Amino acid sequence: MDMRTTDRAARACRLTRAEALWALGVCGLSMGTRPTLWAASGGAPARRLSPADGATEANAPRSSHLSASLPVSDTTIQVAAPLVRLLYQDLSIAIRGMRSTGATGANALWERGRRREWYIEEQRAGEPAAIGGIVTRDRAAVEGALRLFDWGFRRQAVDGRFAGTADPFHSTSFFVAAVAHTCLFARQAADVGLFPLAAAYRQRIARYAPLAQRAARWMTQPGVWSAGLAGNSPFTHRRYLVGAALGLTGLLSDDRALIDRAHEVIDEGLALQRADGVNPERGGHDSSYQMTGVVFAQYWATYLPDDPLTPRVRAMIERAVRWEGTRVEPAGAVSAQGNTRTAGQEPGRDGVIKSVAYSRVIRGFATWGVMTGDARWTTLAWRIGRYYYASPALAARPLLP
After folding, report:
1. Which CATH number is 23's domain given?
2. Which structural domain range is residue 277 located in?
3. Of the candidates 243, 380, 258, 263, which has an alpha carbon nearest to the alpha carbon of residue 325?
4. What is the pTM for the complete model shown?
């Protein structure tokens, strides 16, 4: 193995040489091969991960040397073993329901005449497909991601809105956050020089940046903004969603006004956190949406580490994941007891009743483990993943990225 390549990865991703060797090995980057979990052709997994495959916390490197104040790059986060082995092992899941037109989820049903409304947020599945595809060298996943994004942007009006989408402000915020995160990651990964697909797709992905900026600016129009925030009022996670959508887009497009607007909602979200770490949803706790908000806050802290709000955001995340940890049972199940939204109360856009989004919980814990160097959170991510794949009732439903 070329130690110069390893050292370059270590410098770019703020890892020790040993950790860079581990990350490169997980992703198959060091010798120009596909990851070991992928078949030789097409990027499809040879088989689904099982507990016997060794997906345990013992596989994760201990990064306790990392200071909680040291910024960690997104490339470092996205090659973390729990993400690669639990969420990115089968990226066909992210694009499986996509039609030839690029529509997916409820939008595919809408195109078939089986739903009355479509939602631009459904196309956000392009985010894990693109990022996971770049990390694992799965070209089919990246191509699918672009088709998902293209379907959405073909419906964008000149003023930035997605004309016809239901729940326009909230749905747009999901899509904008997904596109902005994808663009920033692809740019960073291409600059690192260890992700060939990031370099290959850099220009095609970059063309989304001005379109995302246009949508974000539409969100900040006075009438749109006030109505959108009023609708978001009962949901703390939406403060971090909107903050990430505007903040990341502002960074991507060098638009300071968007970042300033993001400050408003993030500051409001910080004030809503309870002393026990709960970020309330509809007046109570929800172990699924808790981590949805955490993940968006992590996007902010990763890409805007020097922003004056970021120390408070990081403190919020720490309290939030500590509370979430109390909801993880010894075997790895995430308790939904007392959840205000994902204990059988609400249908999703596709009509399926919402339950705990295990992928978000895993991502939140795994990401925080990398960002802080605290192995407790990485351990929880592995434990939850092992439980998921060992539970037939859960494993029958793919663990969406």
Report:
1. 1.50.10
2. 3-395
3. 380
4. 0.86
